């Protein structure tokens, strides 16, 4: 059974969002990391990049396959978790601690389109 | 589960071990148990075992068995002694590959041909269709055999412990012994594999294979899935049929001419391969090492600096043993020389690399 944390918002492509004011902290769910297996590479965007809700902003790569990352919200990349470049396995160790990017949201109402923990639990199985 | 999907004799064990299962070559096969990296490292540093029961076993016998195998096989089996094994291909007349396989020269008479699971029916048909004029029996016995590949520097110890036969240490690379189980059933043990490490392949009836698998598990041998089977063979520079060999990719293109004996009087595809050797081929399989950690995957384009596409990746990984991003790619022959700078397009960006030897990892065979 994969771990799902209450209070976060979730996308259908298995990203989670933690809202901190107008910042969206984005990572991938425990379900996603378990499906992928050992993650060996994280393809990150640059600070200052513009992202659009539903658009690709990077990728996680396991030994076997690559899996694109989709931004759940639109805005500007405020921070990227550089630590993952040298230690991509942190996503496997704790998917909710290993945030990937922080986005300064241009339209926080986009959050309404995301799922809560209960709704996400229905698709993450 | 797909109704058409077949299972091997070890399927229950895979499920009990919690393996991640996935369809491969028509079989429901384990991709990984504990994790691809850990399983990969177990084979490189100790010992791992693979369920390869899906592989095909086709027996050829009869007065013309030797002449027939020589006719369909690119390598030269004419002087092959009983108990010895050769690797090679079956080719179409145009030099494209029907399959790559091992040929075991039996002690009594005839040959055992071990073929890829995905190709069993096709190969069997191919053999039948090309047997006109030869007095041979061709017997597809794939369903009667289970197979375990025991691989790694400690495979020899695990094998000796399993059978209690110290003499198995003497088995040479690419040779085999015939053993008997308690009921008098045949057990074949060969010093072969698909990992770049020392190791063995054990063939026996399915019940016996299940028993051996359980014993090896108790002895602490790491079960390994097809996930690391691919990362291991890839690092060792070994081709996978469908990726690096196919009806479109000949042994000459794949750099496997050493397994095609053009001094043999005759075999299917010989003329085409001779022509390819003499005139050159349009595309060649190369190794590419990237300077970045981004991972080249099958199907990604290979480009020049000016973005001209000159090839395509066939297999690629971030190598577990070498900690580098490397791939096999089929490229225009003009760009196949060692050291040639090439670029791989990964998603929206291009990553620089250069042509390197395909044997990325130094193999550790016991010769």
Mean pLDDT of chain A: 95
Tell me the Rg of chain B in angstroms.
21 Å
Largest interface: A-B, 15 and 18 residues
User: Under the CATH scheme, which class of the largest domain in chain B?
Assistant: Alpha Beta
Q: Label the CATH architecture of the largest domain in chain B.
A: 2-Layer Sandwich
Average of per-residue pLDDT values of chain B? 97
Task: Return the CATH class of chain A.
Answer: Mainly Beta
Describe the protein.
The complex is a heterodimer of chains A (125) and B (367). Chain A is α+β, with helices and mostly antiparallel strands. Chain A has one domain (11-106): OB fold (Dihydrolipoamide Acetyltransferase, E2P), CATH 2.40.50. In chain A, 18% of the residues lie in helices and 35% in strands. Chain A has helices at 30-36, 83-86, 90-93, 117-123; strands spanning 9-10, 15-20, 23-28, 39-43, 50-51, 56-62, 66-70, 75-80, 101-105. A six-stranded antiparallel β-sheet of chain A has the order 1-2-3-9-8-5. By secondary structure, chain B is of the alpha+beta class. Chain B has three domains: 11-53 and 145-235, Probable tRNA modification gtpase trme, domain 1 (Gyrase A, domain 2); 56-141, Aminomethyltransferase beta-barrel domains (Alpha-Beta Plaits); 282-356, Aminomethyltransferase beta-barrel domains (Elongation Factor Tu (Ef-tu), domain 3). Chain B contains eight helices and 19 strands. Chain B has helices at 11-16, 36-45, 65-72, 120-129, 155-163, 206-218, 226-235, 270-279, and strands spanning 20-24, 27-32, 48-51, 56-61, 85-91, 97-105, 111-115, 137-140, 146-151, 176-180, 186-190, 199-204, 222-224, 283-290, 301-303, 309-318, 325-332, 341-346, 349-356. In chain B, strand 1 (20-24) and strand 2 form a beta hairpin. The termini of chain B are far apart. At the A-B interface, strand 4 and strand 6 of A face helix 2 of B.
